[in-house]
């Protein structure tokens, strides 16, 4: 079949890489893609939020299966738009409609959803410009530290943790004053939970589900989890502290109530649900939902899936996921993200990347790259996700880090401690 992936990052390269391995994949397209996706698919120079252009590409290339990578088109309603096209009625789509995507598109919606369905999460209240004074007063009685979250999409930068009431009040004023644009029209003030975080991924066809391999990502720019948040500096799967007993709790207390809640509210959800979890005294709490796979977690989750990914995607879109047996490699996967100098603040693009051909037994998933005049250039903050698999966490870490040392471009940065905390945890 002919398949189209929407997106341009490491997540989409990982999807393209995995889908291209299937004998069921005839022709593969990525819109707009990057230098890495061009190695396994045909890039289409259209924006993934240009719904008319996406629909035209689906018609032109006789697409049978569409996979929506990023959150923005999902939240803006690309699935709804395509479903309204009479000639695209037979298109298989992996990704929720706009109502389902509100699990990610609105922090206020997701917190209310969790409350309605008894899903464990931190206590919270939501404030707007009209209730700013009430919010400021509420903060004076709040335990420290205090978590403030922009309600809408803020490119992964809409969560701020403050250590004093004065800082929290200033942050609330800034956020409601336009710091994150329309995404900050509402702000969720949340209890801080102390524990260890991980990500769980659920694939559902609206009724049936498969729990994919869990992962742990590393959000902060600096080693030892210091400095500002990024889109993700690395990831590991499996996660040593997510033992069988804990994952059973997650399934019973989080996954099943989430899917039952969607069904009760009449939301037909066909796609991925990313569940951001924190383990507190052995119990799972939900930090957030995403309506798609995470990045860079995808780059360690998909390499471990041994089941044909096209079969999985088709079953999801057709509502018969129960017929598929999910097979997962016992190996550990580690990815180290190599980023541009200055990221997550201002950074330069257009730097020549060299020595990709020297990588051995590692998969280089391209994130912010561009092919031009025979060179691969940097074209984003996060440039490459270098994924290694091995029979031990230590060996996977070593191979991924060696790859990060090998590739070269001006201003290259990466964290040298990806996975080391999990090695210490296991010890």
Automatic annotation (TrEMBL):
What's a Gene Ontology MF term here?
metal ion binding
Q: Which Pfam families match?
A: GARS_A, GARS_C, GARS_N
Source organism of this protein record? Spirosoma sordidisoli
Q: Which NCBIfam families match?
A: purD
Keyword Nucleotide-binding in annotation = yes
Task: Give the pathway.
Answer: Purine metabolism; IMP biosynthesis via de novo pathway; N(1)-(5-phospho-D-ribosyl)glycinamide from 5-phospho-alpha-D-ribose 1-diphosphate: step 2/2
Which PROSITE patterns does the entry mention?
ATP_GRASP
Protein name as it appears in the record:
Phosphoribosylamine--glycine ligase
The alphabetical list of record keywords is: ATP-binding, Ligase, Nucleotide-binding, Purine biosynthesis
Q: Where are the annotated coiled coils located?
A: none
Q: What is the lineage of its organism?
A: Bacteria, Pseudomonadati, Bacteroidota, Cytophagia, Cytophagales
Task: Report if keyword Ligase is assigned.
Answer: yes
**Record family assignment:** Belongs to the GARS family.
Any single biological process term in GO: purine nucleobase biosynthetic process
State the top-level EC class: ligase
Catalysis performed (reactions): 5-phospho-beta-D-ribosylamine + glycine + ATP = N(1)-(5-phospho-beta-D-ribosyl)glycinamide + ADP + phosphate + H(+)
Per UniProt, residues of the ATP-grasp domain are 111-318
SMART domains, alphabetically?
GARS_A (SM01209), GARS_C (SM01210)
The primary gene name is purD
Q: Do you know which InterPro entries this protein is assigned to?
A: ATP-grasp, ATP_grasp_subdomain_1, PreATP-grasp_dom_sf, PRibGlycinamid_synth_ATP-grasp, PRibGlycinamide_synth, PRibGlycinamide_synth_C-dom, PRibGlycinamide_synth_C_sf, PRibGlycinamide_synth_N
The Enzyme Commission number assigned here is 6.3.4.13
């Amino acid at each position: 079949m002919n398949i189209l992936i929407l997106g341009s990052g490491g997540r989409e390269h990982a999807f393209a890489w995995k889908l291209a391995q299937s004998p069921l994949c005839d022709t593969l397209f990525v819109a707009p893609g990057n230098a890495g996706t061009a190695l396994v698919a045909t890039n289409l120079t259209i924006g993934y939020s240009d719904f008319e252009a996406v629909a035209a590409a689906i018609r032109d290339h006789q697409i049978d299966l569409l996979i929506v990578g990023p959150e923005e088109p999902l939240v803006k309603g690309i699935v709804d738009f395509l479903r309204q096209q009479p000639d695209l009625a037979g298109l298989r789509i992996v990704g929720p409609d706009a109502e389902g995507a509100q699990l990610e598109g609105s922090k206020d919606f997701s917190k209310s959803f969790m409350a309605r369905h008894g899903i464990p999460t931190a206590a919270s209240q939501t404030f707007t410009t009209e209730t700013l004074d009430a919010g400021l007063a509420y903060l004076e009685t709040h335990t420290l530290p205090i978590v403030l979250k922009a309600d809408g999409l803020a490119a992964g930068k809409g969560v701020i943790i403050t250590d004093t009431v004065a800082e929290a009040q200033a942050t609330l004023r800034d956020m409601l004053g336009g710091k994150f644009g329309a995404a900050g029209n509402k702000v969720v003030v949340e209890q801080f939970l102390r524990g260890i975080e991980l990500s769980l991924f659920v694939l559902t066809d609206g009724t049936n589900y498969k729990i994919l391999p869990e992962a742990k990502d590393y959000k902060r720019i600096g080693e030892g989890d210091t400095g500002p948040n990024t889109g993700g500096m690395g990831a590991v799967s499996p996660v040593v502290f997510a033992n069988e007993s804990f994952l059973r709790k997650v399934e019973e207390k989080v996954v099943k109530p989430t899917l039952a809640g969607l069904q009760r509210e009449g939301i037909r959800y066909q796609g991925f649900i990313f569940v951001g979890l924190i383990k507190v005294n052995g119990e799972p709490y939900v930090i957030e939902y995403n309506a798609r796979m995470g990045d860079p977690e995808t780059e360690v989750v998909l390499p471990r899936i041994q089941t044909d990914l096209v079969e999985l995607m088709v079953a999801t879109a057709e509502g018969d996921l129960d017929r598929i047996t999910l097979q997962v490699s016992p190996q550990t996967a580690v990815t180290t993200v190599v980023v541009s100098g200055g990221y997550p603040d201002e950074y330069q693009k257009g730097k020549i990347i060299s020595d990709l051909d020297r990588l051995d037994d590692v998969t280089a998933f391209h994130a912010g790259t561009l092919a031009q005049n025979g060179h691969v250039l940097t074209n984003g903050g996060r440039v490459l996700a270098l994924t290694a698999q091995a029979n031990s966490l230590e060996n996977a870490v070593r191979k991924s880090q060696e790859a990060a040392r090998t590739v070269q471009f001006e201003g290259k940065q990466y964290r040298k401690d990806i996975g080391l905390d999990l090695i210490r945890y296991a010890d």
